[in-house]
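Quick illustration, no need to memorize.
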Amino acid sequence: MKNLLFLFLIALISFYFFSSTKNLVEEKKTFTSKEISFSFVGDLMCHSPIYESSKVEKDSFDFNPIFEEIKNYLSQADFTIGNLETVVAGNEFSFSGYPNFNSPIEYLTALKNAGFDVLINANNHSLDRGIVGAIKTIENIERNGLLHIGTAKNEIERDSILILEKNEIKVGLLAYTYGLNGNNLPKSKKFLINIIDTTLIKKDISKAKPKVDVIIVYLHFGEEYQRVPNKFQVELANQIFSFGADVIIASHPHVIQPIEIMNDKNFVAYSLGNFLSNQRWRYSDSGMILNFTFEKNDSNKIRVKNLSVTPTWVYKGTIDKQTQFRIIKADTSNYPKYFSAIDKLKMKQSFLDTKKIFEGIEVQ
């Protein structure tokens, strides 16, 4: 009898163990997911003091030091994307800052080295060196191994969809600007720069929808130096969501504006602020890295996870007896050794300003 009871217990334990193991395997299969991660920054400007401070010799520049303090934070996502707020047409067009930008080609090299993968170049400065300058900028971006969106060399390129893919998740990226600082494209060159046009945006989203899992629309719009979105921004964002966009990210105000989260898949970041500029006043010297991940489960349902903000601050001051720029991760616990007391106060203020805007969102 004891032997029978012992055998029964062994059988019962074995059944329970193998059943549990099977359930764990099935549960694991049920909850497997795929992910693709992004980091976005706002305006990558190149005012004349920035390129002058990066000059190595006549017509030779090194912008890499500007990004050395922030590079690690730009290299963590699968795709890092920023708004190129300057023409990069080459020195034959002469270099200049505001109001008509043209920056050295080494600027693009430094962006690539810093971890950028894609540049948005539909903005109000896209035509600062005319049509030829816009095309030269595209060519120089491509030569530096970077992708671009918002401008195109021809109709075929404009009508194609930029798809970023990893782990069987396909993300379509579109970009548009509110205008070109009063400049107009001839009808034969309308393909060159995407201007905000709801008919065009709806058409592009409809074209992209069957080919991708998610659509991100990047907009260059809003009022400069205003820290809250205006009525036009809100209404246009809502309209673009109704067309089928999933995420909207934007820049142009040169200051950070709030993020509005609709649900676990849709959000709009109204302005990411300046990532690099010579604008030294409060709010315009502040930027951010917007980080998030798209997750796709076995049912092909997409959700946004790990949404967070890394505040940044632009330092301009003396390093090794020379005026230099650095993009710094803004916080209140660690300051570079070359910071003055005033620099520490300004970066602390920048950090607190950014943190206040994003209450309820993780600030790293």
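The chain has one domain: 35-363.
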